[in-house]
């Protein structure tokens, strides 16, 4: 008898705020009065519905905007970040999600993300400030990329590739090295290997391998540009 392989579907973040729960959790009483902050020096607005360190959120947003700007992906609109107590039920294993319909971001509060041992630890190290910032950067990368795809319905793989590259890139070098050491590999070899199933099976590994792939390109920014233009189309299912 062959044991059935155990497959865990997980999301480092969701790009499916809408699909996961058919809608983002409906506005709760009092949500409208949740305090809002505008990051200093960064075009991002935070709405706090859960306890969180706003400095970390602004730093994560700024890091993603700076990284993408440096490779030619502009910020076209104010980034709206909702810090929430819970994500839609279909995203139990996620720390955040980007809502394509409304163009905003939902991220768990930093208090919950770091202190709650039930919170997802996709990188096989305890969540801390640096990792929390990187989660924010991941979602902000989704928002900026969404505004830059030159065609309709980009694959989830392409979106997660960009978000994963940004997330790993914005980590402090020491923390990045530690995380990379938890995921042996030398990066995806080609576009065929970068698919959404790989992401679902192990989102932390997907981000690390995407980062390594990006870094070993002669010009990683050009690869991202080709994803955004549709010149390279990543598939959501593996090709055999
Ligand atoms: Zn994502």
What does this structure look like?
The chain is α/β, with parallel strands linked by helices. The chain has one domain (about 15-20, about 35-230): Neutral Protease, domain 2. The chain contains nine helices and five strands. The protein has helices at about 15-20, 55-70, 110-115, 130-145, 155-170, 175-180, 195-200, 205-215, 220-230; strands at about 35-40, 45-50, 80-85, 95-100, 105-110. A five-stranded mixed sheet has the order 1-2-3-5-4. The structure holds zinc ion (ZN).
Key terms:
alpha/beta; binds zinc ion; 10% strand; 5 strands; 240 residues; five-stranded mixed beta sheet
Topology:
Elements (H helix, E strand, L loop, with lengths): L16 H5 L14 E3 L5 E5 L5 H17 L8 E6 L11 E4 L4 E5 L1 H6 L13 H18 L9 H14 L3 H9 L14 H6 L1 H14 L3 H10 L11
Parallel strand pairs: 2-3, 3-5
Antiparallel strand pairs: 1-2, 4-5
Bound molecules: zinc ion.
CATH architecture: Orthogonal Bundle
Mean pLDDT: 86
Residues in helix, %? 40-55%
Q: Under CATH, the topology is which?
A: Neutral Protease, domain 2
Percentage beta strand: 5-15%
The major pleated sheet works out as: 5 strands, mixed
CATH class wording? Mainly Alpha
> What small-molecule ligands were found?
zinc ion
Elements, N to C (H/E)? HEEHEEEHHHHHHH
- Output the number of helix runs: 9
Q: How does the overall form come out from the CA principal axes?
A: globular
Instruction: Going across the biggest sheet, name each strand in turn.
Output: 1-2-3-5-4
Radius of gyration from CA coordinates: 17 Å
Count the beta strands.
Answer: 5
Helix/strand-derived category reads alpha/beta
Give the termini distance in whole angstroms.
25 Å
Q: Number of domains in the coordinates?
A: 1
Sequence stretches where pLDDT stays below 50 over 5 or more residues: 2-10, 19-30
């Amino acid at each position: 008898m062959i044991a059935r392989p155990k497959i865990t579907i997980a999301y480092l973040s969701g790009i499916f705020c809408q699909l996961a729960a058919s809608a983002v959790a409906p506005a709760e009483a009092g949500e409208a009065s949740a305090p809002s902050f505008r990051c200093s020096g960064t075009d991002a607005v935070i709405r706090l519905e859960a306890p969180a360190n706003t400095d970390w959120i602004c730093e994560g947003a700024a890091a993603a905007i700076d990284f993408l700007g440096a490779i030619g992906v502009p910020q076209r609109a104010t980034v709206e970040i909702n810090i929430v107590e819970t994500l839609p039920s279909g995203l139990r294993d996620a720390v955040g999600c980007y809502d394509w319909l409304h163009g905003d971001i939902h991220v768990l509060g930093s208090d919950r993300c770091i202190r709650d041992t039930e919170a997802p630890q996709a990188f096989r190290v305890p969540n801390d400030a640096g990792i929390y910032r990187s989660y924010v950067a991941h979602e902000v990368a989704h928002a900026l990329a969404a505004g830059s795809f030159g065609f309709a319905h980009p694959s989830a793989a392409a979106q997660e590739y960009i978000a994963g590259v940004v997330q790993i890139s914005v980590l402090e070098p020491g923390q990045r090295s530690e995380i990379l050491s938890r995921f042996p590999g030398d990066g995806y070899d080609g576009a065929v290997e970068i698919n959404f199933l790989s992401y679902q099976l192990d989102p932390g590994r997907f981000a690390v391998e995407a980062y390594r792939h990006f870094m070993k390109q002669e010009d990683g920014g050009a690869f991202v540009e080709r994803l955004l233009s549709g010149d390279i189309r990543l598939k959501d299912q593996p090709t055999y």
